[in-house]
Design goal:
- The chain contains 14 helices and eight strands.
- It is α/β, with parallel strands linked by helices.
- It has two domains: 106 residues, no CATH class; 191 residues, Rossmann fold.
- Helix 9 runs parallel beside helix 10.
Length: 355
């Protein structure tokens, strides 16, 4: 299913619930094939438990290499992964992007158990799968925890050097742009940077009338979380997020905001005077030469004359272990951008002047 999905931000509960129904199946999942596979997995787990020579998993257990190896030999994570993926696909109205989740990065079922506590509390995955099939709220919390774990995003102001430079640039260009700007936070994740960008633009004096800040991502759950400050698996994060963005959403003259589904390397898109693409270019998730070149070309093509593209990355080890900064600057030059000196990350300006 191909989705053309976009949301204007809101934290109003009734509207948030209505929109969530566009993404997720409500109620119990009654699927004979799923039920059969859960049953077979339960049998496989009982066989594993009966011959596993070490202590079975319980909360707080320290996993040793021997435990991991024995579990993988007797009860492979691939068996578990296949049934969880089937359940989540049945519960979503879109194809969930699970390849980057713990379902694929966990070395064994024991590792997945440890990573997804407290969403999973049973050693037998069939028990958890049965509960998730029956209870839509539990299923929603599990899906959000899987695709938005605690260490993904979860923080505003990740790039203070970039923000300081950007605040000065916005102030310097307020007159040239006649108090109106269109800005994009590409690969926005759960939206912290998008709201931060809106704060900077409003603080620089840009008018709400004629100005817009958009956030785009390839993942619908990220998109929904950002647009609605919705983190059902982490209520503290949701509370703090909503408190931070309240001034942005409550301004009577607020800048137009929208979150939409989009790929960084998309060939076409709207034109912007400012584009951020943090935590992606040249980093662990996007460093293959062909894909990286395509992404920079696409972003550059969406800049208006005189517009600026900025990128910074602190996820994992940052981009320096994958793609040198100078290589990113070279890609910018090849796509018509003149590199700028910035205190954090890289930046490039498109030739020409705004209309």
């Amino acid at each position: 299913m191909t989705m053309k999905l976009s949301f204007t931000p809101t934290v109003e509960s009734v509207e948030t619930a209505r929109r969530l129904d566009l993404l997720l199946v409500s109620g119990a999942i009654r699927d004979p094939d799923l039920a059969r596979r859960i049953g077979r997995l339960a049998e496989a787990f009982q066989s594993y438990a009966s011959c596993y020579p070490l202590p079975l998993w319980a909360p707080g257990l320290v996993i040793t290499p021997e435990m991991r190896g024995q579990t993988e030999a007797l009860f492979p994570i691939s068996w578990v992964r296949a049934v969880f993926e089937l359940l989540l696909k049945r519960g979503c109205r879109f194809p969930p992007l699970l390849s980057g989740s713990y379902l694929h990065s966990s070395a064994s079922w024991l590792d997945l158990l440890q990573r997804l506590r407290p969403q999973i509390i049973h050693a037998d995955p069939a028990t958890t799968l049965g509960e998730l099939a029956e209870d839509a709220q539990k299923r929603t919390r599990f899906l959000f925890a899987l695709l938005l774990p605690h260490h993904f995003g979860g923080a505003f102001d990740r790039y203070p050097g970039q923000s300081e430079w950007l605040g000065a640039w916005l102030g310097d260009n307020l007159g040239r742009l006649k108090g109106r700007i269109r800005a994009l936070d590409s690969a926005c994740g759960s939206g912290e940077g998008t709201y931060g960008l809106a704060e900077l633009i409003a603080g620089a004096g840009f008018s709400g009338k004629g100005s817009a800040v958009h956030g785009s991502t390839l993942e619908p759950i990220e998109l929904f979380a950002g647009a609605h400050a919705y983190f059902p698996h982490d209520l503290d994060r949701a509370r703090d997020f909503r408190a931070r963005i309240a001034p942005v959403l409550e301004r009577a003259d607020g800048i137009e905001m929208e979150f939409y589904l989009d790929e960084v390397g998309a060939a076409e898109g709207e034109e912007y005077q400012l584009i951020l693409c943090n935590g992606l270019l040249g980093g662990p998730l996007l460093h293959e030469p062909g894909e990286l070149s395509r992404a920079v070309r696409s972003l550059a093509s969406r800049l208006a004359p005189g517009g600026v593209l900025l990128a910074a990355d602190r996820f994992h080890a940052g981009w320096r272990q994958r793609v040198p900064v100078e290589a990113l600057r070279t890609l910018m030059r090849e796509n018509g951008l003149s590199p700028l000196e910035v205190p954090e990350g890289v930046a490039g300006e498109k030739a020409g002047k705004a209309d």
